[in-house]
Amino acid sequence: MTDKSSPAKTGLMICGHGSRDGNAVSEFNNLARHLAKRFPEYEVESGFLEFATPVLRTGLDKLKDKGCERILCLPGMLFAAGHVKNDLPSEVNEFANDNPDIEVHYGRELAIDARLLQAASARIEQAEAAAKSDISRKDTMLMVVGRGTNDSDANSNVCKVARMLWEGLKVGWTEVSYSGVTTPLVDAGLAHAVRLGYKRIIVFPYFLFTGILVQRIYDWTDEAAAAHPDIEFIKAPYLNDQPLLIDTFASRVEEMLSGDNVMNCRLCKYREQIIGFEADVGAPQVGHHHHVRGIGTDNDHDHGHHHHHDHDHG
Questions:
Q1: CB within 8 A of 57, min separation 6: which ones?
Q2: In angstroms, what is the C-alpha Rg of the chain?
Q3: Is residue 308 part of a domain?
């Protein structure tokens, strides 16, 4: 039993999606190191839902073995779609059920946050500064690219981020596209964008880390640039370890202990009847990553076996 006269030994579990891309895994692990520095009083472990190792349960068991009486589970994800709403809670709930003496908390996703908008703006400005030509923002179109999910609430958040960047940066126009699952995909979005008459198109992947999908976004951008040499295409960096992103993650950890851990469930398709997804209300909270859990990145395989489903996001 926990000694109530002294603070419980606390562990921080950073929960990642996982990727086939080894560089994406390295960037996620770098995030874990940043947070370990922010919270030196905590034991810190990290793990992944799919592909990469260690898997989530391995990290949770390590914290248990280190004597943690309280574990804070932090989703390393931007928006609350299936992974945050179903897959991660399924893993966390299973561990909590198996370890009733450990106090387990589950944090919220990064969501839309003023600091993340500033981090995104910094990445876009970084791309502008590296551009070869001097084109005004009024002659610039910004293409914000989201991950893309089967959750319309999460997809709509990308549109809100894009709108706020549009008004904040005062570019001429802004469009939204997605890397997979939903539409428009980036190639279709760019095919539309080139007809709008802007001299420069900045393609900004609103992603945490690199990965198969970010590279696909950049490849589509290169193809559009080759087909339209009269337009300057700029590939903006994704968020990665931008300092304001680390600040936002740190706030999500603190929320779990302050009682401010509030998720916006008003438009969650599992709670409300959202048009087109009415049958999903009340769906069980069950993970679906068993077939790819811990199988490793592409760097771990020397054969041609690849998984081409679109929910790999690094």
A1: 47, 91, 94, 95
A2: 20
A3: no
Is residue 80 located within the same domain as residue 124?
no
Beta strands in the chain (DSSP E): 10-16, 43-48, 70-75, 103-106, 140-146, 173-178, 200-205, 232-235
Angle 311-268-264 (CA atoms, 0-180°, nearest 5)? Answer: 105
Count CA atoms within 13 Å of residue 305 on its CB side: 9
Same domain, 226 and 262: no
Q: What is the rounded CA–CA span in Å between residue 15 and residue 192? A: 36
In angstroms, rounded to a whole number, what is the distance separating the alpha carbons of residues 97 and 59? 16
Encode pLDDT of 161-179 as tens digits: 999 999 999 999 999 999 9
**pTM for the whole thing?**
0.84
Task: Report the C-alpha gap between 199 and 197 in whole angstroms.
Answer: 7
Question: Do the beta carbons of residue 56 and residue 49 sit within 8 Å?
Answer: yes
Helix (H) or strand (E) holding 56: helix 56-65
Q: How many domains, in total, are found in the chain?
A: 2
pLDDT tens by residue, 102-144: 999 999 999 999 999 999 999 999 999 999 999 999 999 999 9
Nearest residue to 172 (alpha-carbon basis) of 145, 146, 136:
136
Do both 94 and 142 map to the same domain? no
DSSP per-residue string spanning 213-254: HHHHHHHHHHHHHHH-TTSEEEE----TT-HHHHHHHHHHHH
78 is in which domain, residue-wise? 10-111+243-300
Cα distance between residue 118 and residue 144, in whole Å:
14
Q: How far is CA 256 from CA 107, 146, 214, 250, in A?
A: 6, 27, 31, 10
Residue 141: HSE in the Cβ half-sphere, 13 Å Cα cutoff: 21
